[in-house]
Amino acid sequence: xxxxxxxxxxxxxxRTVGYEALIRAFDNDNAAVLPLHLFQLPSSPxxxxxxxxxxxxxxxxxxxxxxxxLNWLFLNVSPQAVTSGSQSDSFFGQLLKKxxxxxxxxxxxxxxxxxxDAEKLRETVAYYKQLGCLTAxxxxxxxxxxxERIWNLSPDIVKLDRTLLxxxxxxxxxxxxxxxxxxLLHQSGCLVLLEGVETRDQAxxxxxxxxxxxxxxxxxxxxxxxxxxxxxxxxxxxxxxxYKSRNRQTLDPTLQLVTFxxxxxxxxxxxxxxxxxxxxxxxxxxxxxxxxxxYLVNDQGIQIDDTALSDWGNRHADPRFRPLESTSSAxxxxxxxxxxxxxxxxxxHVTEPYLCVTGAYMCVTLSLGFHHNGxxxxxxxxxxxNPTPAQLNRR
Length: 395
Hints:
Beta-Lactamase, EAL domain-containing protein, EAL_sf, 24% strand, 15 strands, alpha/beta, eight-stranded mixed barrel
């Protein structure tokens, strides 16, 4: 059995911050044995625990000779070893003392899967923390993942399963979900690592998702040549430059929206101030094929009168969401676009794409605060976030 290490990189630091230790096994003919087959060999819990200990012993001894006195060593611990309890795993503390590897350089990875003894799992995680190790939940997002385990165990790092990245590569909605999961984990006090990054596009998705660390074949495959690993470079400068370039291009349509609609909004606000209805004042806005609706809100966030729907809004009203259609007297104060318009009147604001509660479609909202009869009001306009070419060409 040999130790293979795969680098783990911090995107912001643009360098290696740790290595995951992986076992590489060979038979008597020096033919590779798949890790899956290796871990199927134990025929009893005792043998399984012995193999788990042997792997960790090997990794720590090898890493102790590695020319790196700063970065983390990520160690996988088998679920059986975890649920055996801290007493059964007390050898680990002795191993750290014997090798002299500081405990704060160890990240114990616990596979995300169900356990029959949640209390024993908490005790074991507490044991590793007491030793001074960091803890990580592995494969979050696959199978039995849930935030309850995050709240119960309070890991330092959460490793997202590569299936989340695969789906985000293929589906824009999945990409938004990935970004949301990363945000929730950060709010839970966890650093986030995305594993399984295999292509440049996936690396850019990882950067955009806001994860802290990345790992995968795109950056570096696991290697038993430990000396070569210490000299490897990640090449993040070029990658981040491409991300910045793409991000500027992504922001351009938003800026174009503000530029294009500014005069329409100013005209509509003047007409509203002269006493015209929302539908009359916003006729030019509602005539644009990407606009779905316009509505007026007072300084308390309460909608004034009914929403004015565009032709597209009238034609594509989904009867399944009819209970949400009427928004007269609705309270929009929670919406960021409203608070921005109230805090900075006479400035046209635009949101990131979000799910519209009145029709369950993705939109962006333009909002403009203006004064009318001594009071502050806000004109809002929802625009389709992803209009089709047919919608844009329809007049």
